[in-house]
Amino acid sequence: MRRIMWRRLGLNLSVPVALFFTLAACSHNPSSTANDHFSLFDVPAPKGSTVYVCHSYGCRQKTRVKFGKAEISKIKTLMAKTEKSDTPSEERRAIAYAISWMERHTGKITGTSSDRAGMDFAGSGDPSQQDCVDEATNTTSYLKVLQNNGLLQHHRVSAPFAKENYLRGIAGWTHWTAVLKEKGSKERWAVDSWIYKNGENPAVVEAKKWYIAGLDTLPKSTF
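Below the sequence we write its predicted structure tokens.
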């Protein structure tokens, strides 16, 4: 029972302790830009189509991966097939499919293809596993690759942010997500890959509606 409980826990022990002793229920974004977030967790920022994939929990390990011309072409084709219309909503749907493909691709290189859904403390330090900090950071890197290659028309990549609600106990521990900002709007969208095992479509949901109750109510993957 205790193991099941920890598997559902969004807590990452590498995040500075001060973050866990703020208000009982709040959201926070310690970084103003995505690059600031990479610096916070000591991860090289993406350059062009090259990223550093976090794993082992809390970006303890980082593996360099370059998406070559062939990979970018596959992603572009996938997104074009997925989008049914030229709208922000359809672009978010296409982004979800692109992120899942990129996870599967990097998983073969980094050994994270067997990454389990959610997390458990048994996975801490395991190079095949990723917690929510790893996932939020990696998803942000993948989004930056899409942006760097002109594949985002309706969105820009924002810094990841976190929410917690300690009043709900374990189910309300700190949880991180990648974030997209919709152009011409103040709307931000959480892109959360941590909920599911490696390679499944992430959930894409309005940031203000993301993780407001607990881990049991996190959104479904995007189809």
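Residues 96 and 201 are 5 Å apart (CA to CA).
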